[in-house]
Amino acid sequence: MFLLIVGTIIVAYVSFVLIRQLLSPLRGVPEPNGGLPILGHTLKITSSTDQVALQNKWAEQFMDLGLYKTRSLFYGAELLHVVRAKWCRYVLGSPEIFPRTDFLNNYFPCMADGVFLVQDEQHSFQKSLLHGAFSESHLENYVTIFEKHTQKLLAKFTSMVKKSPRGASIDLLDHARALTYNIIGEVAFGVQFEEELGYANKFTDATTKHYDAIQNSALSMLIGFFPFVRNFPGVRENIKGDGEREFLKKIVADRKRKIQNGSLTESEKKDFLTFAIQGKDAKTGKTMTDKEIEDNCFSFLIGGWQTTATTILICIHQMAQHPEMQARARKEVEKLPKGDIKVSNLDLPYLTAFIKESLRFYPTVSANARISTKDFKLGELEFPKGTKMFLYTANRDPEEFEHPDEFIPERFMPGSQMKAGSFFSFGWSSTICLGKSFALLQTRLAVARLLQRFSFSIEKKDLDMTLAKKRKPFLAIRTDHPSLICFKKL
Q1: If you placed Cys at 239, which of 170, 230, 394, 454 could pair as Cys (CB 3.0 to 4.6 Å)?
Q2: Does pTM top 0.85 for this prediction?
């Protein structure tokens, strides 16, 4: 009887998907070759050794039209991929028509009430309260923390390189993740994750399990297929962040007591958590609830930890691939002081351009999904309410970028002729990433300090262990193996 029930459910779902695809309003939109009945492009995508390159290939194929569709069994729907920058600006600049889908809510329910996932008035309210935490004056407070943790990374790499006179092949991503995780711990919560015990260690363990869970391809597809799976025992604890929630509840309560007692340390007065607790709407005096504060701490951690680490990897990887550009960037950072550093010291035009071009080439965030709340048009094509869209590859639109498949940092230099609003790696318009300046500053400092101390290359034996192999676009671009870069002491 049980097998009969399961079989009936599967047949019913497959029939639903098939009928939905046959009657879909997107059935006239072209799609890449290789799509199967019912399964669509699911197997094509999941079996690809480099999903990022696959999406870039499809974008180039349909660039003249500016869009294409893919079909997926796991979402029971068709996705409209928008690849023209002018249409991405329209979609991202009209959040009232194109809100976020529930795609990220399925994977990150722990952020449901945070600025990253809330919409409309609630998004504006939270963004106005938190915006100051990433202002230039606050970044000046954070840069000392950036420097402290970056110096620890340099010391670790120096020790590794000393053991090998010809240089050491280092899995940079793991070390970059530790760097960005520890920085966010101190900036956001005033916690030294690498030194403190008790709740802080439990939080680290829970966060690692959480991220491993959402990066698990099989589990991710299963949640896409059956969202209720995230409530199963063993899954809920990791996907919903129950372990991290325990830590955050305690730390928010402790911080509120300190604020009330006037016992904040100087660093606590300036960190993200205090800013979130004390923030008030200028007109109404409204503050965020404890749940909203906790979810914004989740958002800061999950949105800024892996993505910034991956950005650092991408930049060093590209410098290893382009030694002449590496030399130019190193020349620029020679003037960087060895001791105390300020935000103004990090006004490095070429390095900044190099980072932006790296992010244009390899956008770290790929989950930019939207859904329409009314009928709309893109060019001459009309689409109905409820259309699900995926915006990813507009950074290679030839109308915006000359020679889009070539790596040219100069296109982002001051005085270049690049059109405003062509760069989508941090989003666009009112939904642009709140932590953009934070992430870019952190990346500039880390890469600049590494440039001052080391040269980077990719050894022949490690060519199959680089970012250019087996990339998968889930939240942050990731690989299924180490990304080895050879570091040599200058």
Answers
A1: 230
A2: yes
